[in-house]
TrEMBL record:
It comes from the Bacteria. The keyword Signal applies. This is Choline ABC transporter substrate-binding protein. Transmembrane segments: none annotated.
Length: 313
């Protein structure tokens, strides 16, 4: 046998074996994401899903409330949740962490987030600047504070303030609906130049689509620095071990508030999250370099080249 051909054959065999070793079990191809219905989670899940599609995986998402999401991860009916906001969701997830029913990855996927009550800036100019000011504007506010979906920890904190008459809020009504419902009411008030108090957070396009002022004085309720938050990735127990390649990608995802704000903007205009994510990634392919370091396709081929090719189609 020709020696050079023999080495070539051995090299091809080694590459083939490496690819076979890198390929994951068929059960890993379906990656099941959780989504609590917030646009920022839709954006990050969309970004992750597009990359996974480029790698040959079949991502899907289930929209559910926080308790159902954490229970789904515990029962391994879901694989990944990219949206654990600390500290706002910490009370809800703590029992699951203490029971070791799921796994929180140690490094946050987003830093510099915030989550607390806010008002339009013209209301702040009228004197509504802190939690302690809300009660003085009871009549103009109609005695209402606008929250998001039932079961969220933000709503729970508002309910507690009302029940305990903190800041003189006894008798106020929490309006629970959804992120979209809250934004409809806030936008309506802004058009009419009426004061309105609502749950707000960053990243979110609301931060540049309307002039907001985050209220001071809510450190005890929402944490310092206007509910300064970190967002963590949560996975089902042993998912990283069972699906190490997909797990490596998920573990390496890092986002910024600016990135999420701009992916979220078209989503708010009814563009599908995957489409908005794909558009952003086409314009910012450099984000893929760190996300896809040492990540392969589902069948074991180089991941970065595959995803860039997929985005270029």
């Amino acid at each position: 046998m020709n020696k050079s051909k023999g080495w070539l054959a051995l090299g091809c065999m080694a590459l083939s074996m490496q690819g076979a070793l890198a390929a994951e079990p068929a059960s890993c191809r379906n990656v099941r994401f959780a989504d609590v219905g917030w646009t920022d989670i839709a954006a990050t899940t969309g970004l992750a899903s597009v990359v996974l599609q480029g790698l040959g995986y079949l991502p899907a998402k289930q929209i559910a409330s926080e308790p159902i999401v954490f229970s789904g991860l515990k029962n391994k009916q879901l694989d990944v949740y990219l949206g654990y906001w600390d500290p706002s969701q910490t009370p809800a997830i703590t029992p699951f962490i203490q029971a070791k029913a799921l796994q929180v990855l140690p490094v946050p996927n987003l830093e510099g987030a915030k989550y607390t009550l806010a008002v339009p800036s013209y209301a702040a100019q009228q004197g509504l600047r802190s939690f302690a000011d809300i009660a003085r504007f009871r009549e103009q506010l109609g005695g209402k504070i606008y929250g998001i979906e039932a079961g969220s920890q933000g709503n729970a904190q508002i309910k507690k303030m009302i029940a305990d008459n903190e800041f003189g809020l006894g008798g106020f009504t929490l309006v629970e609906s959804s992120e979209a419902g809250m934004l409809v009411e806030a936008t309506k008030a802004v058009r009419q130049k009426r004061p309105v108090v609502f749950l707000a957070w960053e990243p979110h396009p609301m931060n540049f689509l309307m002039q907001l002022t985050y209220l001071t004085g809510g450190d005890k309720q929402f944490g310092p620095d206007f509910g300064g938050s970190k967002v963590y990735t949560v996975v089902a127990n042993d998912w990283l071990q069972r699906c190490p390649n997909a797990g490596r990608l998920v573990s390496q995802l890092r986002f910024t508030t600016d990135m999420e704000n701009h992916v979220m903007e078209p989503i708010m205009k009814k563009v599908k999250p995957e489409q908005a994510a794909r558009q952003w990634l086409r314009s910012h392919p450099q984000a893929l370099d760190s996300w896809l370091a040492s990540v392969t396709t589902f069948d074991g081929k180089p991941g970065l080249a595959a995803v860039k090719s997929y985005l270029a189609r």
